[in-house]
Amino acid sequence: MVILEITTAPTASVNIQDPYPSEGEFAERIPPNSTRIFTLLDSQFDRVQGQLDNLVTAGLITYTALDGPASQVSNDSDAVGTNLTDALNNLLYGYAAGSRVLHVDGARTLSYVPDGTPQRPYLKIQDAVDSITDESYNKKYIVRVAPSTYDENVVLKRHVYLSGGGFGANYSVIINPSAGGIALSIPYRESYIHGIGAITDSAVPTDAGIKIFDDGGGLGNHETFLMNFLARSTDAGHALWVDTNPFGEAAIGIEAAIDGGPNGLAAYLDGGGFIFFVGGMGSQKNGFKLVNGAFLMAGAEAGINASETDPTAWCIDAENSFVVLLGTMLSGYNGIDAKIGTTLWLNKACNLGGFSGIPIRTAVGSLTILGNVGISGGGTAMGGWQISGNIAIAQDSTQGFGTTGTGGPDQRPTTTSSVVPIGFKWFATDLSLGVQPGVWLTWNGGAWVDTAGGVHP
Hints:
This protein has 457 residues and is mainly β. It has 2 domains: 66 residues, no CATH class; 323 residues, Pectate Lyase C-like, CATH 2.160.20. It is built from 3 helices and 39 strands. The strands form 4 sheets. The chain has a 24-stranded mixed beta sheet that branches. Strand 6, helix 3 and strand 7 form a beta-alpha-beta unit.
């Protein structure tokens, strides 16, 4: 056993999930500036240690791990009385007694009646999922998929965990339906995938590599987790599609690879929520598009990229949605387009760089909050910015916005013929604007004016 103490930084909550939650159901969300103590199995700690170390590197947590009392049984599941078969299965496959493993092998020649055993695996992933009829919170299933390319459309169930085992770029389990549609559909709640690649080659915009959907089953006990996965589009379909979730929950991706095609989106969030911490999102055209109250949170060691040559491409295009970027790297032709009703919050050493076009464009009726953000590039007027919405700039966010304090050019937002700024509140440490921190400035058509009538051209 391991006694684990985790302390979070004041800036953000963190999520920690055991890749095999059937063994002890360890999935925790820890709020900011908090300390929590957990007792984990040795095997659980081994599986989450990589997540913990990444969070430490990102400055989000500190932790200590001490040896605790010995586990009660040899399979380290804390299930007293587990027999030898269950103990060996747990050590080999990572599931607790009472759960069941079904096997799929698309490379096998069918000369038997499949039953999901290693000797008689299913040839199709969906056949294995459809054979499950008694899944529940207390009885979970793992579908272990052997390396192959699976030409099918897979719809997962709650309490079913799909495991392919690929790591990094070596995704040996690929779901790629030749008939189009959604390659892999996953419920919002209580599902899990690991080491799976899902690809759409479809020219239909409503097709996708992975779609996360509301299955109508109501609230669950925990969100869906996607670990070490690939979602890819090679044409106009979405690589990742997160559909409307009436309960405000978010799917959580860790070690994500999301690759958008030349004619579509890398990720489309239609009223749904998606959180990812480690991994990259790249696109031959557009990155994330958020509509209808969608929520996106990207943390440390996450990158969002769009086309660097297409003037119409944006890393993030959000309308009536909420975007939080904490230590996230963005690059592409254009950065973030915050349309009406959007709240944009960038913090924790977030870096937006390399833009040929517009780093950030804000619309009337939007709110942008910046803190400790480095911004560079911009080939248009206003230092690359186009500001029409309200914006607050926190300490240490002067790069690319406002004077640098070292003789660099003044990059305060000005106006263009098509965009008229509403105003912003200046909190920068550099006071070369001639106003005190916290003064509200509005645009009068030719200069920034403070509330006392002072003009700052």
